[in-house]
Amino acid sequence: MRALTLLLAALPLLLLPACSSSGSQKAAKPRTPAATTPPPGSAPAWAKGMKTVTEDKLPPEARRTLELIAKGGPFPYDKDGTVFGNYENRLPKQTRGYYHEYTVPTPGARNRGARRVITGEHSERYYTGDHYQTFEAVVHP
């Protein structure tokens, strides 16, 4: 009698897998999207839908500034590499110190001019030609 009671108690546990929609098949592994590179000229996720520009469409001075950034300098202006505060909130919101700014020389300007490249901690790059009024995410061609 005791054996029959144990069998009846265990029966629902033995039948439960057979009642599920997957039966005795192995549970499917959750699919994770494969890391993909966005198509050339398309906006990467970090650009948050903003306008983009490819390096080759930037002014030559901006391309030279990007080359200096990639090499780690030397930079022609003391303010190059300083923290960009994003006070205008035109770039995606990040903690202070996340962004840094670099001067893009403006031919004929007596000062630093209005053009800048802003970099983010994760290699994001933005260009402004109008002193932080508008930005474009710099993407690879």
TrEMBL record:
InterPro entries associated with the record: N1-like, Ribonuclease/ribotoxin
Region (Disordered): 22-47
Presence of keyword Signal: yes
SUPFAM superfamilies, sorted: Microbial ribonucleases (SSF53933)
Entry keyword set: Hydrolase, Nuclease, Signal
Sequence intervals crossing the membrane: none
Record protein name field: Guanine-specific ribonuclease N1 and T1
Protein species of origin: Streptomyces luteoverticillatus (Streptoverticillium luteoverticillatus)
